[in-house]
Design brief:
Layout: H1 2-18, E1 22-26, H2 27-33, H3 35-69, H4 76-129, E2 134-138, H5 154-161
Parallel strand pairs: 1-2
C-alpha cells in the first residue's frame, strides 16, 4: 500500500509538470449505472435464476427421497436403491452448482472486460475532445485515494457510453 501511494505521489508530481488537464473516472460507477452494464447484470441474474431453478428441483427430489427412506414399509433392498438414487441426485446437484459457478464467473469476467474496453474507448474520445492530458481511474479497480469532484468526468463518460451525447 505504501508503495502504491509512493507511485501515485510520484506520478502526480511528474504529471503536474507535463499534464495541463487532469480528469478522473469512477469505472465502477460507470459499470454499474450504464445501460450496457445493466444489460450484463440482467444476463447474469437471468443465468443465476436458471441455475437456481435447477438446484431447487434437485433439492425437492432429495427431500422426497429422504422422506421415502424414512418409511418403515420399505424393504432393505428398496432402501438401498433409494440411497443410491439419492447419492446420484446429490452428485448431480454438486455438478450443477460447480457448472453454475464456472459459467457465472466466466460471464462476469467477459462482461467486465468488454465494458472496460468500451469505457476506455469512450474516455479516450472524451479526453481528446476536451483536451485532457491525463485521466485517472477510480472505483473498485483504481488506485485513486482522493479526487476533487471538479475533475470527475464519470457522468460525462456514462452519458457517452449510453449514447446520450457524442
Amino acid at each position: 500500500m505504501e508503495r502504491l501511494l509512493s507511485i501515485l505521489i510520484l506520478l502526480v508530481a511528474v504529471t503536474g509538470v507535463y499534464a495541463q488537464n487532469i480528469a478522473f473516472v469512477d469505472v465502477q460507477k460507470v459499470m454499474n449505472q450504464s445501460k450496457k452494464g445493466q444489460e450484463y447484470k440482467k444476463e447474469i441474474q437471468d443465468k443465476v435464476a436458471y441455475y437456481q431453478k435447477k438446484l431447487d428441483e434437485i433439492d425437492k427430489k432429495i427431500a422426497e427421497l429422504e422422506k421415502q427412506l424414512s418409511s418403515p414399509v420399505l424393504s432393505e433392498e428398496a432402501k438401498d436403491k433409494k440411497r443410491k438414487e439419492l447419492a446420484e441426485i446429490k452428485a448431480r446437484g454438486l455438478e450443477i452448482q460447480q457448472e453454475a459457478e464456472k459459467e457465472l464467473s466466466q460471464m462476469k469476467a467477459k462482461a467486465e472486460r468488454e465494458l472496460i474496453k468500451e469505457i476506455r474507448k469512450v474516455t479516450e474520445k472524451y479526453a481528446k475532445q476536451h483536451n485532457i492530458d491525463l485521466v485517472f481511474v477510480g472505483g473498485a479497480i483504481g488506485g485513486v485515494i482522493y479526487h476533487d469532484t471538479a475533475i470527475d468526468i464519470t457522468d460525462h463518460i456514462l452519458k457517452m457510453l449510453d449514447g446520450e451525447t457524442k
